[in-house]
């Protein structure tokens, strides 16, 4: 069931696209120092006073996608990927309509499990809550061509990265591990090609 749900989530997310503009790029590292931007994971989404345009993606006469607008600017696109009537994916577009950030609740429990960051419409970083609690344990980084370049993992759930995997030409070439707890890799394992 979980695998099927994830497949549906991925398929619908790839098919659905934002048609309008809006949004803002944020730096989560600095979000704690001031008011948090409007995001599903912060549970501070605003709809009142905004126009909402509904779209039926699967033809069942029920809305599955909502464009949330401030005036003529789309500030958020919400998607119901499992067709239960509630959004489980949230996209924040830039002024040209390209995604800047996307959040997904894969197990539909109201907690964001995946956050994707984009630059010029190209995926640059993916944060994953592998235990579906909202705690980010894996971060994937992508190069300017959209290829996976590095994965950082918190393998012992202490809130600090302790495993780094490095990729080149779609292959893992090296793994680094933090054995002394200082937040930097101390031991490296090269991967034979």
SSE map:
Blueprint: H1 2-15, H2 28-31, E1 51-55, E2 65-70, E3 73-79, E4 89-93, E5 99-104, E6 114-119, E7 122-128, E8 138-142, E9 148-153, E10 163-168, E11 171-177, E12 187-190
Antiparallel strand pairs: 1-2, 2-3, 3-4, 4-5, 5-6, 6-7, 7-8, 8-9, 9-10, 10-11, 11-12
Give the overall silhouette.
elongated
Helix content range of the residues, please?
under 10%
Main beta sheet, described?
12 strands, antiparallel
Structural class: mainly beta
Radius of gyration: 18 Å
Q: CA-to-CA gap between the ends?
A: 35 Å
For the largest sheet, list the strands in their spatial order. Answer: 1-2-3-4-5-6-7-8-9-10-11-12
Elements, N to C (H/E): HHEEEEEEEEEEEE
């Amino acid at each position: 069931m979980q695998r099927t749900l994830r497949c549906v989530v991925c398929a619908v997310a790839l098919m659905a696209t934002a048609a309008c503009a809006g949004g803002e790029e944020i730096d989560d590292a600095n979000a704690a120092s001031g008011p948090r931007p409007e995001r599903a994971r912060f549970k501070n989404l605003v709809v009142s006073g905004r126009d909402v345009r509904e779209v039926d993606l699967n033809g069942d006469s029920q809305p599955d996608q909502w464009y949330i607008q401030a005036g003529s600017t789309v500030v958020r696109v919400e998607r119901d990927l499992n067709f239960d009537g509630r959004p489980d994916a949230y996209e924040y577009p830039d002024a040209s309509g390209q995604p800047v950030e996307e959040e997904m609740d894969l197990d539909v429990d109201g907690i964001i499990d995946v956050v994707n960051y984009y630059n010029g419409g190209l995926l640059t970083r993916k944060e994953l809550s592998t235990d579906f609690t909202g705690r980010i344990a894996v971060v994937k980084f992508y190069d300017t061509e959209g290829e996976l370049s590095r994965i950082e993992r918190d393998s012992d759930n202490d809130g600090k990265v302790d495993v780094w995997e490095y990729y080149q030409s779609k292959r893992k070439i090296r793994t680094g591990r933090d054995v002394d707890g200082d937040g930097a890799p101390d031991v490296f394992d090269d991967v034979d090609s």
